[in-house]
Every structure is written in C-alpha cells, then in structure tokens.
C-alpha cells in the first residue's frame, strides 16, 4: 500500500498534466470582438435588398486618457434579409460583431409601417440581442440617428441611452419601450405599443425625443404629438413627474405633479356597449404663476387643475377612441375580467371601443404654492 | 422533518423552471393548463404525503433493502434495474435541456460535446460520493445560489413591467377541462420525494411528519407553480406565450437591474441555474448509480484491493448521454420529456400498491420474529 506521502505525490503528478488542458476559454478573446452599441434598421432604395442596417460600433481604446472624446465606427449595409446584411457586414470588420451589448434599436420611420413584424422576428429570434434593449423610431431615418454624435457626449456611453434609462433625463415627453414590451403589445389584442420618436436636429447637434408613435398591426401608425405623448405618459404612469399648464378663470399657473396614480376599468353595459372608467389622482405643487397666489386658495386651485386635466385627458381619449387605437390597454383590462367564452369577439370589441363612453374622475391636490405666495 | 428532506423536494421543483415543464404547460395554455395545475397540486401533495409516511415508517432503509426482504429475487432485480434506468433518464433530460440552453445563450461557439462533457464530468464526481455527502453538497450549493434566485424572483414580482392583466387573463382559462400533458408536467414537480427510495438511507431516525409539514410543502409548491406558470405570462403576454421556446429565459432577459454590476439578468439567472441543474442531475444520477450498485453487487468487485465496481457504470452514463444529446433536437427533447412525465403519473401512484404489500410483509415478519 502506498503511504500518505507518495499518495500526495501521485496526486500532484496526475494534476500537473491536467493543468495544461486549461489553455483558455472557448470564448473569443475580448480584443477579437467589436461591440455594437446601436442597431439602426432602415428601408433601402434598392428593391431587391429592402433592408439597410447601420451599426454603431465602439472603437476600442487602451485608456480613457488616450481618447477623452467619444469614438465610434459605423458600418452600413443593404440586404435581402436582416441576417444577410449582417453576414455581409462581418466581412467589413476584422473582428467578430458582438450584439450582446447593444442597448438601442432604432427603426426607420418608412420601414416601421410595412415590416414591423419581420423586424421583430429577427430581433427576437437572435438570442444575443437583449430583450431589455430600447426600441425607438428614427426620424428622418435610423441611419442619421445612429450616426449622429451630439454635443457633450461622454466617451463610451452614447448620449441617446440617457434619454431612456431613467438615470439621466426624466422628461415627461419620453416614452420608454423595451423590446419585450413591444413584442407583447404587438402580439396581444387589447393593448397597442407606443414607440418614442427620435428626431435629429443636425444644425444644433442634438436629439429631440418628445413625440411618439402608436403602432397597430396592419394599420397606419399614428403619431402622438408632444402633448398627447405627455398625456399618455401621465396616464400610463411612465413619467415620474409632469407639468400641467392651467389656464382657467383668469388664473394662469403651472402645476408640477410629482405623484400620480391612474386606474382604468371597462364597464360593460347591455348589448355590447362599454364605458371606459378612468380614475386619476394627481398630487403636486405650483411651480410658476402669472398672478400672485394665496395659500388659503389651494383647494380652489386644485379644482381648476382638475378641470384642466379633465379637458386634456378627455381630449386624448376621444382621439384614441375615434381612431380605434388602444395604447392604454382597455381591451386587455376587459379580457382580464371576462371569462373567455363569454367575451365579445375582437370585431365586436373594436366596434364597442369606437363607440365607448368615457367616465373620468380626476382627483387633483396641490399641496403648496412653492417657495413664494 | 429534517431539512435535507425538503431540499430533495425543493430542488426538483425549482430545477424544472428551466426544463420543459413550463413549455409543456404553455402548449395547452388555452385548453386547461390552469385546471390541470390545480389538479396536479392536489395529486402531488397526496403522493408526497403517502411516500413520506411510508419511508418514515422504515427509517434508514432504502427501497432495494425493503424489496430484498419482502419480494423474490426474480422480481426485485429487474425492477430495481428498471428504476435505475428511469433515474438516469430523468437526469439526462435536465442535462440535455441545460446543454441546449448553454449553447444557445452563453457559448454559441463551443461544441455540444464539450459543453455536455464538462457538466457530465463534474456531475459524475458528485454522484460517486456517499449519500450523506451528496446531501451536504446540495446544501452548500443551495446556500450559494438560492438567495440570489429568490432575489431574482423578487425582482420579477416587483418590476413595473409585470402586467397583472395578462396573468388574470390566463387565470380565467381555469374553466377548461384538464389536459393530460399539463397534468403530468405539474405532477412531476412533486416527484422530488421519490428520491427517498435511496436517500432514506440518510434519515436513520424516525421523524415526525404531520399536517404541518404537508401544509408547508403545499404552500411552497403552490408558490413555485404560480411563479413557474404565471410570471412569464405577465412579462410576455398570454395569447402567444406558446411561441417562446424557453419561456423563463426570455422572462429573465426582460428584467433589468439598472444599478447592479450586470444589467442583463439573463446571465446571472443562467449561472445560478447551472448550480441548481447540477444538483438536480447529481441527485438523479446518484440514485441511479446506487440502484445499479445494488443490482450488480458492484461494491464487491475489487481488483487488488481497489474498489473498481462503482466506476463501471460511468462510461455507459457518459456514452449514453453524449449520444442522446448529439442526436436530439429541441422539439424531440420536449416530446420525450412529455412522454416521460406522462408515464410517471401511472407508474408512481401504482407503486403505492407495492408499498402496501411491503408494509404488510414487514409487519408479518416482525410479528413472526417476536413470536
């Protein structure tokens, strides 16, 4: 029998050759990868190759001091399918294209109306594209959005990400839509996706993200103006803060809403008539006023705000009902409350939605007039 | 009950979130998955109770021991061999699923054989250990991975993106008649308890098992089943949930941790599930190897004092699993698991008859001894 010492020796002898097997990982080395930061998908002029993909690539630098300014490389390629375009692109780059770190997908306005489903298929089928990447509409084209580097951009973190990631700007005009959210809203009946529109201001060298677009399968996309985008954000509780301008009965002030809550419900009445019940509560303070204010009148100002908000929100809903688009998700609410075998068919629902009544309750509360009266 | 007993049940439940169970449930999401799950919950709790009570009556005895004492050799040898195959297959399903996941999401460039071999080898080392050491390993791995997995579950529940309306819509399909495939898939979640066939060796003291323990198990399994089925629906919508090949992977990819080192939860999730999958395969294959040892008396096989016996099944394990993984595609794997689960809902309840027989013979033997 071998004693303990020789056993240990034997063990080390066996272990040593095994170590040589550990030559490295099967992953490609990091300097053989090039990371894609944004994907832009456009419609090309070429009819045989309808897709045009633009990729923004991070240019690797050895240290931050070496290049304090943002540096990117761009590749653009047309293709019959999206995969073909990407395959062709791979031949332009000496490194492997790595999509796993791409955080933003910009889709050109022209393409969106026609081929939203085909693009979605590509984006979802590839396992390396994040489901938490943001999706936006590029105007005039995705290529221009992707290729622009605005003033004051930090190195290695594209400014455009700050618009959506809830850490940078928290504007009430910016809708944030993740890829998984787009997918579920696009595929389900009863709720329609809303995508932000990124506009390029070439001269001033910055972006403008304050409009959005409602997408409905097989229908024209509907563009929400800035005001409607804001209303949508308030109603879907997307925005953390919002400003409302109140111009009623001689008063003219600006209310800053810092806490909001909204509830929806569909009430079904006889013979497929429905009523949309919306319950919004807004709490905030006054941030600007043309006239001097009295603190004892806060309740009165709140009433004015309620009236103003009701007008604004009702207008938004009437427009949505009129065109038959449902970004808030009343259809889903109806489905979540009614047994599937007692539901109206989707045609009946669309009809009912178009003739729906609105019952809105707004509960506004202004807590303060700010630092001055 | 000892905490190790709960580990056995718990691992099987949690491990199946990434395996085929959710996919099978979603196949009939409009035809009675919800009612089959409720039915599965009831049936599962009953079978857990019966099995635990039976093995609790014979502390420290494994099923082969009991069979040896009460039944004839022509019966128990083939029967235990059959069980060994079954357990091997159960581990194989998890292994194949996980290999496919890794190649799809983590290392697309790596050859399949290399991925599966690296899992198999570490599992083999694990399952050759003694039974109590296997249990200690389970505890260690659970200690590391479970808090993070629970944290991810917490993230999924607390996220703004979870749309409860989809969940409600899905739950309203409860009024459909149950479906066989879904029932057997949800029943399978409970079958961690059958590992007591071998692991009962560890529980040498008679333990108290009453309605309190049953309630704990029922509550945990309800929560687990709810999470398994409804959370992906809340994140991915209801109507087209069946088009997702890996519902839970897509779901974990839909969660964002903006202040964490890794923003994309998918990789954290996959990494920790690698731990859970490893433990799950290890349990199944440990039981399988122990059965084989019993059938072929492998313990007694020695060459120059070196215990060769327990190493004999290993080449067969590696060969058979590599062969299956290379041959299978995702759809076949799903169907195969479904067939396997379906067969279990007939097999394990009918085992109860055998238990009655064993119990009676043991009692008779005891009385005979006393007289």
TrEMBL record, chain A:
Subcellular location: Membrane
Keywords: Germination, Lipoprotein, Membrane, Palmitate, Signal
Signal keyword on record: yes
Domain Spore germination protein N-terminal: 28-200
InterPro entries cross-referenced by the UniProt entry: GerAC_N, Spore_GerAC-like, Spore_GerAC-like_C, Spore_GerAC_C_sf
Membrane topology of this protein: Lipid-anchor
Residue ranges of every copy of the Spore germination GerAC-like C-terminal domain listed in the record: 223-370
Family that this chain belongs to: Belongs to the GerABKC lipoprotein family.
PANTHER family, per database record: SPORE GERMINATION PROTEIN B3
The name this protein goes by in its record: Ger(X)C family spore germination protein
Automatic annotation (TrEMBL), chain B:
Topological category with respect to the lipid bilayer: Multi-pass membrane protein
Major location (coarse): membrane
Subcellular location field: Membrane
Top-level taxon in the UniProt lineage: Bacteria
Keywords: Germination, Membrane, Transmembrane, Transmembrane helix, Transport
Segments traversing the membrane: 5-25, 37-58, 79-106, 112-129, 134-154, 183-203, 215-235, 265-287, 308-326, 338-358
InterPro entries reported in the protein's UniProt record: Spore_GerAB
Keyword Mitochondrion in record: no
Family affiliation: Belongs to the amino acid-polyamine-organocation (APC) superfamily. Spore germination protein (SGP) (TC 2.A.3.9) family.
Name of the protein in question: GerAB/ArcD/ProY family transporter
Organism this protein belongs to: Ureibacillus aquaedulcis
């Amino acid at each position: 029998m071998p004693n303990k010492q020789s056993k240990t020796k034997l063990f080390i002898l066996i272990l040593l050759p095994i170590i040589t097997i550990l030559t490295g990982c099967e992953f490609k080395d990091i300097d053989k990868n090039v990371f894609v930061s944004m994907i832009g998908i456009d419609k090309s002029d070429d009819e045989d190759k309808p897709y045009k993909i633009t990729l923004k690539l991070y240019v690797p630098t050895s240290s931050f001091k070496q290049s304090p300014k943002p540096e990117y490389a761009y590749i653009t390629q047309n293709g019959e399918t999206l995969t073909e375009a990407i395959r062709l692109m791979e031949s332009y780059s000496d490194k492997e294209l790595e999509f796993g770190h791409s955080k933003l997908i910009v889709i050109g306005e022209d393409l969106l109306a026609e081929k939203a489903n085909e693009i979605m298929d590509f984006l979802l089928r590839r396992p390396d594209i994040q489901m938490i990447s943001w999706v936006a509409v590029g105007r005039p084209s995705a290529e221009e959005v992707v290729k622009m580097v605005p003033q004051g951009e930090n190195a290695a973190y594209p400014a455009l990400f700050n618009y959506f990631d809830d850490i940078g700007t928290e504007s009430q005009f910016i809708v944030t839509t993740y890829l998984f959210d787009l997918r579920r809203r696009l595929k389900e009946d009863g709720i329609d996706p809303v995508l932000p529109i990124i506009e390029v201001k070439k001269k001033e060298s910055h972006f403008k993200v304050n409009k959005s677009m409602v997408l409905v399968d097989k229908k024209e996309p509907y563009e929400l103006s800035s005001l409607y985008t804001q209303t949508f954000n308030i109603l879907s509780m997307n925005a953390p803060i919002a400003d409302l301008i109140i111009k009623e009965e001689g008063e003219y002030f600006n209310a800053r809403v810092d806490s909001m809550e909204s509830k929806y419900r569909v009430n079904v009445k006889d013979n497929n008539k429905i009523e949309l019940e919306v319950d919004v509560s807004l709490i905030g303070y006054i941030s600007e006023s043309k006239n001097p204010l009295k603190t004892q009148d806060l309740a009165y100002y709140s009433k004015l705000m309620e009236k103003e908000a009701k007008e604004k929100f009702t207008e938004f809903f009437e427009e949505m009902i009129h065109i038959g688009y449902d970004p808030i998700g009343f259809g889903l609410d109806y489905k979540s409350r009614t047994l599937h075998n007692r539901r109206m068919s989707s045609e009946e629902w669309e009809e009912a939605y178009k003739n729906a009544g609105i019952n809105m309750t707004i509960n506004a509360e202004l807590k303060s007039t700010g630092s001055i009266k | 009950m000892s905490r190790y007993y709960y580990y056995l049940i718990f691992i099987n439940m949690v491990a199946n979130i990434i395996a085929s169970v959710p996919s099978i449930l979603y196949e009939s999401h409009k035809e009675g998955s919800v009612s089959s799950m409720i039915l599965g919950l009831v049936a599962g709790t009953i079978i857990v109770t019966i099995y635990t009570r039976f093995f609790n009556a014979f502390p420290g005895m494994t099923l082969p021991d009991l069979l040896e004492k009460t039944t004839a050799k022509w019966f128990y040898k083939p029967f235990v061999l059959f069980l060994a195959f079954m357990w091997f297959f159960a581990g194989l399903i998890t292994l194949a699923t996980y290999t496919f996941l890794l190649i799809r999401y983590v290392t697309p460039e790596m050859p399949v054989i290399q991925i599966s071999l690296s899992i198999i080898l570490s599992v083999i080392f694990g399952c050759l250990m003694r039974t109590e050491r296997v249990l200690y390993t389970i505890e260690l791995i659970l200690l590391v991975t479970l808090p993070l997995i629970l944290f991810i579950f917490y993230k999924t529940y607390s996220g703004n993106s979870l749309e409860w309306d989809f969940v409600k819509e899905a739950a309203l399909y409860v009024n459909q008649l149950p479906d066989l495939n879904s029932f057997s898939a949800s029943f399978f979640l409970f079958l961690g308890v059958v590992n007591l066939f071998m692991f009962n060796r560890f529980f040498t003291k008679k333990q108290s098992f009453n309605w309190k323990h049953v309630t704990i198990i029922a509550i945990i399994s309800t929560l687990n089943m709810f999470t398994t089925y409804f959370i992906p629906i809340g994140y991915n919508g209801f109507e087209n949930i069946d088009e997702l090949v890996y519902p839970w992977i897509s779901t974990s990819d839909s969660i964002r941790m903006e202040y964490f080192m890794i923003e994309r939860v998918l990789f954290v999730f996959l990494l920790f599930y690698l731990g859970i999958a490893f433990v799950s395969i290890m349990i199944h294959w440990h039981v399988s190897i122990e059965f084989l040892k019993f059938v072929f008396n492998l313990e007694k096989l020695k060459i120059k004092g070196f215990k060769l016996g327990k190493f004999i099944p290993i080449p067969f394990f590696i060969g058979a699993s590599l062969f299956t993984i290379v041959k299978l595609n995702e759809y076949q794997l799903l169907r195969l698991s479904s067939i396997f689960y379906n067969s279990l809902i007939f097999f394990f309840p009918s085992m109860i008859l055998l238990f009655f027989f064993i119990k009676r013979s043991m009692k008779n033997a005891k009385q005979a001894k006393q007289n």
